[in-house]
Design goal:
310 residues, disordered C terminus, single chain, mainly alpha, 14 helices
């Protein structure tokens, strides 16, 4: 039994790291599209709409989930998918990107508060220490002290993104009887519908998608970047994230998710030529240590044994 738990935990950590990699690649591959002329909201719409189209066959296959868990699907589509996208991009319009990112990644910390004070369930000290280390590391990664321009509206949107991030971990855990394919497909369909209203894609310059974008000093087809953010940074990212939460726990998977800004920073350096400063290297090390410490914590609840539900 002990060996089975250890194997499940090891698998969960590997899947959580894979999810962080997929999510972390969204920025480095989205930025060239934005530089080429697309707005951030249009890139977000391409990401969600493309993912929804790819997952449509699985939505049809898992149609029964519409009757069994409609509230879960609505919540997942509105908050973890549409909410994070809209709130984050609205925040960076008036708040420095680093500050908005730090606030958004307070989500895993809020998860601990929810579990402890709302669910009234115990939180392992190891998981708490790991999250604290990761938060400190994130402060260094984004170099929070380099510029604080707190616009009240932007700050409110950034906090909204953090709350939606919290919902991502909690809803992924609570829907244990819903297959990840069903949850992801209907979440993306609803999220894409919501972001369509906000992004107004009919105003997008579609000709940009048939051109090229610059990455790592070379011109690559814009559609390659679009494919990356749709397939890896959306579909695979959300699927692997749901599985990771169920194999571990919301707080442990949330701590491992702090690897995302580290991965994003490394990929930005490799693909976009954005250098790494000494503080960012130190912060990256702290995030790695925090994620490792947190994943060593035993899950507060037993991992979901059933991943083949509706």
């Amino acid at each position: 039994m002990r060996k089975l738990v250890d194997n499940t935990k090891t698998t969960g950590v590997a899947v959580a790291v894979a999810s962080a990699f997929c999510f972390g690649g969204s920025g480095p591959f989205a930025k060239p599209l934005i530089t080429a002329g697309l707005t951030p909201l249009h890139v977000a719409w391409l990401r969600l709409a493309g993912g929804a189209v790819l997952m449509l066959p699985f939505a049809l296959r898992h149609a029964r989930v519409l009757r069994r868990a409609p509230k879960l699907l609505v919540g997942y589509g509105l908050f973890p998918i549409a909410g994070v996208q809209v709130c984050y991009f609205a925040a960076i319009a008036t708040v420095p990107v680093g500050v908005a990112l730090l606030i958004e990644f307070l989500g895993p910390v809020l998860v601990l508060g929810w579990i402890r004070f709302v669910r009234r369930a115990p939180v392992t000290p190891t998981a708490a220490v790991g999250v604290v280390l990761a938060v400190v590391g994130l402060v260094f990664v984004v170099e929070l002290w380099s510029g604080l321009g707190f616009d009240p509206v932007g700050l409110a949107f950034a906090l909204g993104a953090a709350l939606c991030e919290t919902a991502y971990f909690l809803l992924s855990d609570s829907g244990a009887d819903v297959h990840p394919m069903g949850l992801t497909s209907y979440g993306l369909l609803l999220g894409a519908a919501v972001v369509t209203v906000v992004a107004r894609p009919w105003e997008m310059d579609w000709s940009l998608l048939v051109g090229g974008v610059e990455m790592a000093g070379h011109q690559i087809p814009a559609l390659v970047a679009v494919d990356w953010i749709v397939v890896l940074s959306t579909v695979l990212a959300y699927l692997s994230g749901i599985v990771a939460v169920r194999l571990l726990s919301p707080q442990v998977a949330g701590a491992v998710a702090f690897l995302e800004p580290v991965i994003a920073t490394v990929l930005s350096w490799a693909l976009l030529g954005e250098g790494l400063g000494p503080w960012q290297l130190l912060g990256g090390a702290l995030i790695l240590i925090g994620a490792y410490v947190a994943q060593r914590a035993a899950p507060s609840t037993a991992p979901s044994a059933e991943l083949s539900g509706v």
